[in-house]
Amino acid sequence: MPATLTARKPHQIAVVDNDLCDECGLCMPLCPPEAIHMTRKGLLVDKEACTGCVKCIAPCPVGALAMVDG
Amino acid sequence: MRHVDILVVGGGPAGCVAAWEAAVADKGLDVLLIERDRAIGAPVRCAEGVGSKGLREFLDPDGASWVARKISKVIFWAPDDTEVNVGGGDVGYILDRTRFEPALADEARRAGAEVEIRTEALNMARENGGWRVRLAGPRGEIDVLAKVVIGADGVEGMVGRWAGLDTRVPSRDMESCAQYIVSNIAFDPDAIYLHFADRWAPGGYAWIFPRGEGVANIGLGMIALKSDGRNAREYLDGYIKRYFPDGTVTGLTVGGVIVATTVKRTVTDGVILAGDAAHMINPLSGGGIVNAMKAGRLAARHAAAAVCAGDTAAERLQRYHDEWMALLGDDHLKYYRIKDALSRLDDGFYNGLARTVNGIPLEKRTLGRIFAHALINHPMLLPVAARFFV
Description:
The structure holds 2 protein chains of 2 kinds. By secondary structure, chain A is mostly beta strands. Chain A has 1 helix and 4 strands, in the order H-E-E-E-E.
């Protein structure tokens, strides 16, 4: 994506709904930049590292991941 | 700072056996096993089925408290619900993993390993030829300097990442799984059922694994890329509604099963990965418990030998990788190709195969014969078979 376009329209990023998430960790190895971390407050997506590739979204067995504007 | 010879991260089958075997390998070694959760064996993220032969290499299941059910039959359901019975006899066991892993951890303790629960690795860095690992436990944070770290930390493992090993998985190789415990249902409690159908579990299968009479683990694994938009839990809800509408549903479990081949590098300086963390699951069946235990045993032996020799470099630990590949890893490359070929076949193929196999007398139904019939009906499998059997 050209830099100008990126600047004008920030890409979407993944977020975890920690109420739905069962902390199985399935999404972690699916993330190309390894942006998903298991913390004591549950799973967390590193906003800076997430590229918005959506590879983590559909495989979540309980639909706990969604894309939002970054 | 505390010093240990071998730090095992993760108290599943791979980690418990690794700690056990490391302590057995050399009584003089300081072996520490850490488990993040409150108890070894919980939460269960598994269908809990295990083959008899592999299990018996480690523990004796006869009369054991950690056995939920002995299995003597395998029943396949084709997409059109045609039922095919295969095999028989000493097939395997359904475990109670809340008791099974504690039994393994007890063996590790008795052999001299230390086991700490509610203790998590936060990060690690190379130091003095070993690894300084920051641990967070009930008494706060401490640093441990370990000569070798065995990463048995599962699908979500971090040890590999921290050590610079690539443990990422493409979406096509990740089975999204969901499972309920369902009671008050009618089925043969001596059999496991495997149900293949794109509409119920695309790219995977649904299973019924008995926990006792009238109660079973019912679940499925599917590939999200092949989904109609529903997630695994929604697929499972549809399945239960269709096949067990009157069952009492409790205990949702979800998780990922990596149906790939072993990661290219399972070792680096002072680090060995074992079990799910190294993608050592059978990619055709999705089974990983016995594989994890075998890998844990190998990892421990190589780690112990490396520590005793004073050489924990990647070049030496590579022997673990090579031995694993010869033991099971190379087979997984073949299973992966079969999985790949099967994934291109549609429901009609499985329906036809089921009817053909039902024409073979029960006592002559071996997997080899079934595969032979599959080949006759579908020559496109031939190149795969050639690679598999040559």
